[in-house]
Design a protein that fits this description.
Layout (H helix, E strand, L loop, with lengths): L4 H5 L3 H15 L5 E3 L7 H14 L3 E3 L11 H11 L4 E5 L5 H9 L4 E3 L2 H12 L5 E3 L12 E3 L5
Parallel strand pairs: 1-2, 2-3, 3-4
Antiparallel strand pairs: 5-6
Helix pairs in contact: 2-3, 3-4
Length: 156
């Protein structure tokens, strides 16, 4: 779901919380991602949005729909991850178009990225181009996360 940006910006946080919570309940246990569309928010509004997502029981906070000019910037992701810690997952979308960005976001705490088909193909071509067809990158991850272990031979 996309957070109600106008209510968030207007400081109508109780209404935003009620909206997110209603969707969490409707999901009946299915993990919910809430898109905050960071491009349109100040830092404090981003953090308020994250707090509301956590309080409502969302599973992921997402930086954007991918339609705004920005979203998944290193600064936005670093700010969000430093604020939420492990209380909620962070998904990046909006500007994720190459392997360097995917890995940079991962290093900053992102565990899911929204990548378009064209960009996804280019990223996988880079992964497959590694001598021997293997790219095995072990980066710090939160407990239980397998991290990035990309292996062209076995598909994961």
């Amino acid at each position: 779901m996309v957070i109600n940006i106008s209510k968030l910006i207007s400081g109508r946080h109780d209404e935003v919380l009620d909206g997110i919570h209603s969707v969490v309940e409707a999901c009946n246990g299915v993990p919910l991602k809430v898109i905050c569309e960071c491009h349109y928010l100040s830092e404090s509004q981003m953090l308020n949005g994250c707090d509301l997502c956590i309080e409502a029981g969302a599973f992921w906070v997402k930086t954007g729909t991918g339609w705004a000019k920005t979203g998944a910037t290193f600064d936005n992701v670093s700010l969000i991850k430093a604020h939420v810690g492990d209380a909620i997952g962070v998904k990046a979308a909006g500007g994720v178009r190459d392997l360097a960005t995917v890995l940079g976001l991962y290093q900053r705490g992102v565990r899911r990225s929204g990548v378009g088909l064209k960009s996804g193909i280019k990223i996988l071509e880079l992964v497959y181009a590694v001598p021997g067809g293997i790219l095995d990158i072990s980066l710090p991850s939160r407990e239980g996360d397998q991290g990035y272990h990309l292996n062209a031979e076995n598909g994961y």
